[in-house]
Amino acid sequence: MDRFSSGPMRDAMPDGFDLCEVDAAKPTLILQCDVFAETMPAAIPIVGEVDAVFRRALQRDGHPAAVVRACWGEAPGDPRDYSAVLVTGSGAMVNDPDPWIAGAAAWLRRACSAGVPILGVCFGHQLLAHALGGTVAPMPSGPEYGTVELRRTAAGARDPLFAALPDRFPAQAAHFQAVLAPPDGSVVLAEGASGIQALRFGPRAW
């Protein structure tokens, strides 16, 4: 078991915040929400498939990873079988009537209730917000692409994932929609010209 019990990460956590224990013997789940071979084959020679992109980003040498292609309707099973969950981006929109999106949202609610650490990236961030009762819709300012400047909020400065970032930092953006109204109880960690860019949804979900 790994525990953030001391040091700058622990010091950065707000009162009552607990990352708890992560079982390193369990795999990290990559919940894949897009398949480049189907939607963006030109990206394959450059970055590889979606799961390969996130395997590299995890930088967890020797730590097992499991890939479930939610976009193909694959079911992840019991959330407690995983040490953590990483939800990928997608060309889909969370309000699309695809059954796999509703199924993934329902599973993420179970994972949040089980206390499994979750990180949603791009579409994954929007899917978590949608699953937990937030509003995701087209941005009034229109689509956003390229390198954008984000502003860390006061809550972000106290967050264990965002505390080490500067008050302003660059990020890559490619989205038509955004979280226009966050779920009840969530905390805005970063904002940009298009609005909310990062949220903490609960003690172990971002």
Termini separation comes to: 21 Å
Strand numbers in spatial order across the main sheet: 4-3-5-6
Spans of at least 5 consecutive residues with low confidence: 1-19
Order of helices and strands: EHEEHHHEEHEHEEHEEEE
Number of helices: 7
Largest sheet: 4 strands, parallel
User: What is the percentage of strand-forming residues?
Assistant: 25-35%
Shape: globular
The count of strands amounts to 12
Which structural class do you get from the secondary structure elements? Answer: alpha/beta
Provide an overview of this structure.
The chain is of the alpha/beta class and 206 residues long. It is built from seven helices and twelve strands. It has a four-stranded parallel beta sheet. The protein has a four-stranded antiparallel beta sheet with strand order 9-8-11-12. Helix 5 (99-113) links the parallel strand 5 and strand 6. Helix 5 packs across helix 6. The longest helix has 15 residues, at 99-113.
Short synopsis of the structure:
The protein has 206 residues and is an alpha/beta fold. It has seven helices and twelve strands.
